[in-house]
Design brief:
This protein is 62% helix and 9% strand. With 130 residues, the protein is mainly alpha-helical. The chain folds into 2 domains: 2-72, Winged helix-like DNA-binding domain superfamily/Winged helix DNA-binding domain (Arc Repressor Mutant, subunit A, Orthogonal Bundle); 95-130.
Length: 130
Amino acid sequence: MDESTTYQPTESELEILQILWANEPATVRFVYEQVRQKREVGYTTVLKQMQRLTEKEVVRRDLKGKTHYYSVVPKQADVQQTMFQRFVKSVYQGSSMKLVMHALGQGKTTPEELEELQKWLEQQKKQNDD
C-alpha cells in the first residue's frame, strides 16, 4: 500500500500499532487487555479503532477458524520515519540540527556521549568526502 509509508497515526492508533508490532498477529481481546493495563478503555472502543485501521488498510485482518487476527501493514520503521520527519518539520522548521542542539542542551552531556558524538561527526565528514 502506497499510503502506508506516509501514514500518520493518532496517539491511540499508535498505541494499538505498537502492541501489534510487538505481538502480531494478535486478537482484539489481546490488544484490549494490553491497552487496559495502561488506561481505562472499553473493549468496543478498541474493537472500533482496529476496524477503522483495517478500513484504512493500515491493519490486515485474517480469519483463522473463528478468530480474527490482526497484523500491521506498514513497517514500524516507515511509520517512525514519517512521524519523525513531520515532527522535525513542524517543531524545528525542518532542521535536524536544531533538534539535536535542543536535545543536547537539555542536560549535562557525559564525556562518553561527547566522544560518541565526535565519532559520529567524523564518520559523517568521511561519508561526505567520498
